[in-house]
Amino acid sequence: MGNSLKLENLSKNFVLRDRVVNALADVNFEILENEFVCIVGASGCGKSTLLRLIIGLEKDYEGSIQIGGVPIEKAENEVGMVFQESRLFPWLTVEQNVYFGLDERAISKTEKIRVAREQIELVGLSDFERAYPHQLSGGMQQRVSIARALVNNPKYLLLDEPFGALDALTRINMQQEILRIWQEEKTTMILVTHDIDEAIFLGGRIAVMSNRPGTIQKIFNVELPRPRERSDYDFIAIRKKIYREFFQESEKPFSYSI
Q1: What pLDDT digit, counting tens, does each position of 149-161 carry?
Q2: Which domain covers residue 33, as residue numbers?
Q3: Using one digit for the tens of pLDDT, what is the confidence trace for 168-226?
Q4: Sheet strands (E) in 156-224
Q5: Burial classification of residue 17, based on how many CB atoms lie within 10 Å of its CB (0-12 exposed, 13-18 middle, 19 or more buried)
Q6: CATH number of the domain bearing residue 253
């Protein structure tokens, strides 16, 4: 098992006015150390809810979430997360935003700055430590978010559609950057995306989720050499298989439980 992330019989319901919404139902999935896993599915199928459960932002679920056999609630600093919006503090510099996550540590400010600058260098922003968020492009802001998520050296990095708001060229550049960081840092990455090409370009495995209540419908192994070319025959063949699965599922109606 090692330090694998294991989801067993995971279910989550929400109360919405006078009805219970089944967000996730009986999710079973194991993610191994150093993997790059992508999760795709229709809007509203529970992809983001799944990540929020893993990071601990959502509670009151059924089933279990464990890292190396330890319940996720006790796995402090094992998991970091990057959201679609950068969520940077506008009044703090890049450097201050990155080491903000270290404030609970009993280390000196000098050490915090050193650790933060290591992560800033990793994401290619060494000349921007003193810049403020409004002085950065959207892609640069997301690089800062990635640096902040990595500052505690988590074993798992969750990415919730982090490039969704970026223009096409910046998005491709950021895909290449996150792949470089994964290869250098060996951090296990779990990316939620609606972009199937993005999932094939980045992922070693792609999990397709069903409509709500979301569960893991099918897992595709992406056994393509890196770097990957989106125009290659094998890339296109995998895309066709996933589209077929994805749109077959998307035709099914969402369900509610009253």
Answers
A1: 999 899 999 999 9
A2: 1-78+190-258
A3: 999 999 999 999 999 999 999 999 998 999 999 999 999 999 988 899 999 999 999 99
A4: 156-160, 188-192, 205-209, 216-221
A5: exposed
A6: 3.40.50.300
